[in-house]
């Protein structure tokens, strides 16, 4: 074990300041039902997080010298527009104020040395022999970013990195895109070069597709790279244009973790994609100008309904109407009708449950509890489905009470350690402080 790995490990374990209910289930234990507000939900404001001072201290302990820079990379949640990205449609995610912090120090030792606090583990590779596909899963994201930067002409001399985060891993808030974009920005900070958010997002997506082996779109990386504080991001998945849409300051995004693992998500996701493609092919035989389900109107779908199987029809209907809900939702937000936006979120959930069939009993229950809670304007499952998180929009003055009531009721009903985070939209991945 290299000497830089040893000093902080025991202390890291003691100081897992964001070990929430999610972390406990990851270790296979079911926590007792929460006694205190603290255990039921967390606010994501920076003062609740240990902050960069703590990360700097631990970086220095581990690597023997202070970090040069601290990078903040957000998680993301999709507010509406689910399963539309691979149909060339629209999505409306937000970059979140929970995410990944990365401390970085430029070195000339020719190595990539990384400590991952959440996993209490380390990695070290020579930059000339990164082997991005070889190591444990988390190292593939990190080595993969370095490898692609080198492949695309960026010269790296060496770097020490420490990764921390206050984001649940594997819960659908795109901790992977948050990690990728954070590492890319941190490594680029050691070279002094500037790369546009869309280009960074493409690199992040290549890491997922080519190195980790996940066949995902670019929406997550684009949201994490292009976030704007106080705004949702209208993403046109055909052109990759990003258009910030203001979210009123008196509402909060409530992220509700069902604590149901997304075990079926991979295979079901591939099946849904195939069903969309077969629906598209049928329509295309009669309508050659149609390139994707995005180009199909509700009238056109009705015209071809008899040639589609019942399943193809429902999948296509979800995608087509969901696209309309996204665009209607943006119009509603731009004229300040946030309650109308909430209603569209509710309809999105029903469509995902009945037409796209990617919900499940726990997510339906959680969304049902949320929509009945005081101050909640709308709620739906978010992400691919089959477990993971739901998202709700709630008035700021009701956010704490709603988070507590929903989580407590969900826990009582399911025995699962559900938890909630109260968030606001934040900026995309950026250097947040330069240590002088
Ligand atoms: P999601 O992106 O929905 O959170 P994924 O399965 O795509 O779920 O990505 C989760 C994986 O990303 C983790 O299992 C881990 O390999 C990696 N990861 C994300 N955040 C971190 C972190 N802070 N430290 C180490 N690895 C991380
Ligand atoms: Mg991911």
Residue fraction in strands: 15-25%
The outline comes out as globular
Helix and strand element order: HHHEHEEEEEHEHHHEEEHHHHHEEHEE
Q: How would a crystallographer describe the biggest sheet? A: 6 strands, mixed
Number of helices, counting only DSSP H or I runs of 4 residues or more: 14
Task: Tell me the helix content.
Answer: 40-55%
Bound molecules: adenosine-5'-diphosphate, magnesium ion
What is the multimeric organization of the chains shown?
A: single chain
- Strand order in space, largest sheet: 6-5-7-4-2-14
Q: By helix and strand content, what is the structural category? A: alpha+beta
Runs with pLDDT <50, length 5+?
A: 1-38, 44-50
Mean pLDDT, as a whole number?
89
Q: How many whole angstroms does the radius of gyration measure?
A: 22 Å
Distance between the termini: 30 Å
Number of strands: 14
């Amino acid at each position: 074990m290299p000497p830089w790995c040893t000093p902080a490990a025991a202390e890291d374990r003691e100081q897992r300041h964001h070990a929430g209910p999610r972390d406990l289930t990851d270790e296979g234990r079911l926590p007792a039902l929460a006694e205190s507000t603290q255990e039921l939900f967390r606010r994501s404001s920076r003062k609740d997080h240990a902050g960069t001072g703590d990360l700097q201290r631990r970086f220095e302990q581990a690597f023997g010298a202070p970090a040069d820079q601290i990078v903040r990379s957000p998680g993301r949640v999709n507010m509406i527009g689910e399963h539309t990205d691979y149909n060339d449609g629209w999505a409306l995610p937000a970059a979140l104020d929970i995410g990944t912090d990365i401390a970085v120090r430029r070195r000339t030792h020719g190595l990539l040395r990384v400590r991952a606090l959440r996993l209490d583990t380390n990695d070290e590779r020579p930059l000339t022999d990164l082997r991005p596909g070889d190591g444990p899963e988390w190292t593939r994201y990190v080595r993969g970013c370095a490898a692609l930067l080198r492949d695309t002409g960026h010269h790296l001399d060496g770097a020490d990195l420490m990764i921390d985060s206050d984001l649940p891993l594997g819960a659908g808030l795109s901790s992977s895109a948050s990690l990728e974009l954070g590492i890319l920005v941190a490594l680029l900070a050691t070279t002094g070069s500037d790369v546009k958010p869309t280009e960074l997002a493409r690199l992040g997506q290549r890491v997922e597709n080519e190195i980790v082996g996940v066949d995902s779109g670019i929406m997550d990386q684009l949201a994490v790279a292009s976030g704007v504080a106080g705004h949702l991001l209208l993403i046109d998945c055909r052109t990759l244009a990003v258009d910030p849409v203001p979210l009123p300051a008196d509402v909060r995004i409530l992220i509700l973790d069902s604590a149901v693992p997304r075990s079926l998500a991979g295979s079901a996701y591939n099946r849904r994609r195939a069903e969309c493609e077969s629906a598209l092919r049928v329509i295309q035989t009669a309508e050659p100008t149609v390139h994707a389900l995005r180009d199909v109107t509700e009238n056109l779908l009705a015209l071809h309904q008899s040639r589609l199987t019942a399943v193809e029809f429902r999948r296509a209907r979800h995608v087509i109407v969901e696209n309309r809900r996204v665009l209607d939702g943006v119009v509603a937000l731009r004229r300040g009708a946030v309650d109308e936006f909430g209603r569209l979120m509710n309809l999105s959930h029903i469509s995902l449950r009945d037409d796209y069939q990617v919900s499940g009993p726990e997510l339906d229950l959680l969304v049902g509890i949320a929509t009945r809670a005081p101050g909640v304007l709308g709620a739906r499952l978010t992400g691919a489905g089959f477990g993971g998180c739901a998202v709700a929009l709630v008035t700021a003055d009701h956010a704490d009470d709603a988070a507590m009531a929903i989580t407590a009721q969900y826990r009582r009903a399911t025995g699962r350690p559900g938890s909630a985070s109260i968030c606001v939209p934040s900026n995309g991945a950026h250097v947040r402080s330069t240590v002088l």
